Amino acid sequence: MYYVYILRSLKDRNFYIGSSENLVRRINEHKSGKVKSTKNRLPVSLICYEAYNFKEEMLAREKYLKSSDGRKSLRKRLTKSLVD
Question: With 57 labelled, which of 5, 15, 23, 70 sits at a CA distance of 20 to 30 A?
Fold first, then answer.
């Protein structure tokens, strides 16, 4: 399986979108400060993830979610998860 996941920084309240084949390992790397893009934003919390059978679909979804329209869509869809 291939995963797209969304983390929320409890420090700056922003979210981070990433992808991985091993979701548990990757989330643990984020939480332990081993990921350059989130280590200064700790602690982080997993707010949602999506699973895909094909890598191409996962990559397309990640690309969309990182776009302006994708981020707007996330803010609308995850209103309770993104409340301060």
Answer: 15
